[in-house]
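Quick entry, no commentary yet.
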Amino acid sequence: MRVGLQTQGVRSLDVLEQKIDAQDIAKKDYKVNTNNLTVTNSDQLLIDGVGFFTITPHMSRQIATFLGIPYAYYRKMQIDAPELLQKSAQTWLQKNDKDRFIRTLGTKARAFVSDRYRPLDNGELYKAIHPIILAKNVDVVSSEITDTRFYIKMVDPKLKGKVNWGTGNEMGRAKNDEILWGITISNSEVGAGSLQVKSMTLSSWCSNLMIVGKEFSRYHVGKTVESDNNKVVYKDETRRADDNATFLKLRDTVDHALTEASMLETLKKYDEAVTKDFKDPIKTVEKLSKHLGASENEKGSILESLIKGEAYNQWSLANAVTATAEKVISYDRSTEMETMGMEVIDLSPSQWNEIAV
């Protein structure tokens, strides 16, 4: 396997496999009635007959949603009135009287989801992806497992093109920039989204990665899971067959996404974006940041990257967003901003006119 271009969060496949294997050993799942759960005043979950687990921030959001408590208020109780949170959570857990699917990892409680939640785990997904990586001879440029999602991002070095910057719009070596075509595969074991395959591009000049569009999605919903003394029986012949069908569809999706036709369609959008100029970078970035929901720090970074590039058009603005994606600490947020880059390209004419005035 060739070594790909370096982007944020890069892991060798060996390191990724080691992390997957370690998590597979540490993971346990439980189907539990809410009457047998206790949320303590120290952000822990007690499962009757099993023990205590530290509640992750993601699971706190899930519990708040299930109990009908606005998360901002739930968070305020966590910080300022933990005894009140314990009393409120316990009251509503008892009143709900429903079975929930609890996913744990070592001493952490990481998911609080419906008993119809359909586990599609990272280990099984990786086993399905690895032969595709080998067969396609692609370069893995970035991969990561965060608290909520698994990512693997790859490009096919055989699929590449260029963006027509136009006279006077080139940013340094950008006029010789090659755009590599590839895909991002992501998954969540904890109810933070579906299994997804999205096409993407990677700039060989500045390593900006832009996630283009969704090609495939598979949600984690199925029949009610069975349990045996609070331990979930989650692998049977029927579900393995369902997994296999999903992975076959995923393979076919990858085949379809990694084609020259798909790449050329996107490069055409990039070329058109180069022709859409604006004159006031400060006001344009201010309006765009509000549209995208960017933070103040992200807004400042977008503006800095844009001005440094010395080209004021829709394509350079999108690149300023994806350049900022490489600077944020969170891999999840970085991936969100890589998607936002394409949101800039896909703005409707009326949206662009409003932002670029």
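second:
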Amino acid sequence: MGCFLVNHSANYRPQARAAQELIQSSNKIGQIRHISSFFASPLSWIFDDPSNKGWNEPDDSGSMLGNGFAWGQSSHILAWIYHVVGPEQLVPTRVFCSMTNSDVTGADVSHAATIICNNGATTFSLSGTSLLPGNAHSDPPVAKRIMIKIFGTKGAVVYSGNDRDLASGSLEYLRGSGHDEGNDDNDTHHVGAVEIHCPELGFQFEELDQDGIGPESMQCFIDACLGRNDFYVGADILVGLRSVQTIDAMYRSNASGDCETVRG
């Protein structure tokens, strides 16, 4: 039958699987109403370098607006969110975005976006920057900082931390009051209680290590190629589409100064 996998390595981590289970399969947070997210990378050295044309310049077709931080980094956090919430359930419709750019290359290095989903039923804020001081590839490396908060009618999921420090964060489920009657979860004494999922793993986002047998994303790709039935699809074609649709609208909004409709 075949499959389509996108190599967003954070999506294949156990914490992403657990977050997807909380939100989609067990429906512990109900209908998604608001998402807040932030991604900072110590990558100014990439976006300020004119020789990094693949990172900083649009292609020759003229149809692509920008090629900086949004395409190079925010694509990862968007793919994680669309994966764990479900690209069928979270559908972007309109985007307003403002960006700042490198004085050297003109590449975008920071952005703040409001993404309206599901025809206004869900608000989604996305901000990011490459201006985190340091270098992700220095010795010792400076870590990326990630913050994701997903709020629903029954509860919330929070996943934030420093991607070089396992102890810097964890996957948290914050219990709400909208559970089914007859379930102990409906007890108001439990409202606001925090459950830690994957406590032994802590915070992990992108997997950049190239030692051993490779990241989970590569292992799943190999399993798919070998025809095994139990490989995990951490980022499929619809997750990729939602991410591209959102970023495309972000660039168009920054260029026009207006709220832009997401293209189908």
